[in-house]
Amino acid sequence: MTVDGDNDVALTAREPSLAECHQLLERELSDRLKRLFLKVEDAFYDLADKSENNHLHARYFQAMRVLRRQREAIEIQFLANLAKAGDAWMTSVGGEPDAGTGTRREHELALVEHEELEESLAVANLISKAESRHRGALLALRRQQAALTGRETIDSRTDPLGPHVICNAFRAALAPVGESVDLDLTVVGEKLVEK
Question: Do residues 64 and 42 touch, judged by C-beta distance below 8 A?
Fold first, then answer.
């Protein structure tokens, strides 16, 4: 595959740098995810300990058990989602980047239930804070990616190394947990990701 334009340089000659960035991101996120799971377990334990009744106590312990059982599957799915987004982004070089599966749900907000809207807003808030907090580093990274792929700019919504793709990959990986426990507990977990 080649990039259209004045410099007809093979994309595959440029891909190793991007592949290394993606591998570094995966390693770093995998380590952080392990630490996050421990913090979420601790948070659920604290919430269970402070719960006002047995029903809440049981819900928090159930969430903790589900998280322990599904931890490895969540991590595998999260990394697979990131890889899929990266592959889709790379194959779109020269054309308009695909918005990805994570963004499709945000266009359907009018059709979702209240709990789904709350979850979508929590993820959108997380993305916004990450974009704001790391603006300089993200702009520099996107400029470098643009130079390596021959694009003029990199869309923050499809940047495979950016908060939008990362947060939506994590949200999609958490979907089975949301089906196993109450949705508000999933939102608690997502809010811990922000910290």
Answer: no
pLDDT tens-place string over residues 90-145: 777 544 444 444 444 444 545 556 667 777 887 888 899 989 999 999 999 899 88
59 has a pLDDT exceeding 80 = yes
The DSSP code sequence of 44-81 is HHHHHHH-SSHHHHHHHHHHHHHHHHHHHHHHHHHHHH
- Cβ neighbors of 66 (< 8 A, separation 6 or more) are 177, 180, 181
Q: How far is CA 12 from the centre of its chain?
A: 26
Distance, in Å, from the CA atom of 194 to the CA atom of 192, rounded to the nearest integer, reads 5
The model carries a pTM of: 0.74
CB 144, CB 56: distance < 8 Å: no
Cβ distance 158 to 100 under 8 Å?
Answer: yes
Measure the N-to-C terminal CA separation of the chain; round to a whole number of Å.
Answer: 41
